[in-house]
Amino acid sequence: MFTITVSHESAVPPYEQLRLGIIAQVRSGELTAGTKIPTVRALAAELGLAPNTVARAYRELEADGVVETRGRQGSFIASSGDPTRDLAGRAATEYVAVARRLGLDDESALRYVKSALESG
């Protein structure tokens, strides 16, 4: 079942709330690979959002490999499972490679990660 809530009072932009909500449902198993998700227009009407807002969230989800569009058939949760963990793992591996090239020890590299997490 596809249920997303978007708060218009939140400081987080609606497209980002939608994107994060879909990712959360994929991670929790509520949305599984191959699940058809609503059309841009249908979801926009349901949530009281502009179609461009929903389209932006879908584009970003597609770029991250969470959603795949099959032309006239619609948009679906990608069959690759939860690609966000794969993407995060690759980003972490790339960071470690850069940190090693720069000669950072593990403690220093972790300090940078913690600092980035606190400021982000």
Automatic annotation (TrEMBL):
It holds the Pfam family GntR. Residues 12-80 form the HTH gntR-type domain. InterPro entries: Tscrpt_reg_HTH_GntR, WH-like_DNA-bd_sf, WH_DNA-bd_sf. Keywords: DNA-binding, Transcription, Transcription regulation. CDD domains: WHTH_GntR (cd07377). It comes from the Bacteria. GO terms for molecular function: DNA binding; DNA-binding transcription factor activity. PANTHER family: HTH-TYPE TRANSCRIPTIONAL REPRESSOR YTRA. This is GntR family transcriptional regulator. It comes from Nocardia arthritidis.
